[in-house]
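The data are quoted verbatim for reference:
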Amino acid sequence: MMSLLAAALAFALGDPSPSSAPLAAQIAAERARNTSFPPILPTLPPRFTPHLRSVRGPEDIPDEGRIERVRRSVDINHPDFPAQILSHVKYSDAKRSYHQSRATELGDRSGSADHLARANEASEQTIKLLKILFTTPQLARNPFIEEAMYLCILELEALGRAAEMRDLQQRLLREHPNNRYQIHLDIRAAHRSLAHGELTAARRVFERAIADPDPSLHASAHLALGWSYLQSESGEAPRPDLALASFTRAIEATTRADPDTLRSAHDGLVHALAASPPAVAIATILRLTAATNPAKRLTVGQLERLALYTFARGQFLESAELYRHLLQHHPDDPQQCTWQLRLLLTAVAARDPGAQRRETLALADISQQWHDNSRHHPAHRQRCQDDARTALSALTPHDEELCAAHRRLFPDAPPLCAASPP
């Protein structure tokens, strides 16, 4: 079967095969490779639970009748009673998380429904425990009320009890207008708005989160804002310049403890930089990856990803410039032959015969170097040689220099060009 590279090169040279199919197949193959790297979209930031994190969860507490025993185990007027309730909340919350994870792992397999039912039971138990903290008159001044209401809102939302959730949200705002939990609830709502394309409403919340004194909100808010600028609303075109600024700030504000935000920001950066000149894109990537360990590998990965993404978008000249940068600045990288092949494909896709010839000769040179250098893995050397053979075979009949390169690389193969007259 003719390889995709061979098909694309044959089309460029006027192969009698169907006029557009080979090039379309090659472009489709590159686009398919691009779609195999879907971007990591922004996710909700972690729950804001400073009090819950600070208490110890009880060990080995039976499920049945737990609330009743909690009520009796310490006198309700004892100062430790609210903290004990919260410790039982922590236990029940951990139980819910465990069963949800198991249900997700099992998928459609046996046992998943049972774990999901147990997770819902744990959520119901958590709600009952939390309500003790904000509905019991004797506990009206306990320090956990706002967090208990916030957590209860999240549980109600997860269980689909929308009316109760809205009532409790209104109560939280009414009774505790300056609470530190409202901005976290607003961010959750903004993510829902973003998912439904309601960009203006979402952006207002993310901008407010960026202005919030809590720095833990800033990276995820910049990230979500950046992805919002890559979408359009009511005829408004995407703004890759604003997206680029937001992703840059997200990367600068992200700590090592938040790898998901960093990965999503780097994915967003690729999408935003596709609208920038390659020189600007390269400089931006170099600057933002300089402080990352290992910086070189991340830099190379980002440039490769952008080169692939621009190729899939039909930006062949931009993709070629990025591959040329990689080849020039990372001469010892084991991906050199692959980059050169992909650089050749940009010329094929752009239907540039001069560039095709030049990049084919360069591919032959790399293949020769690799053939003579045992430090490369044998399978990689063989693949590079096969790619060079395919490229030279497609173009050789039209160029003596390419024929000479073929004879040099494959002296035992039948000559592809007629011998020159003496």
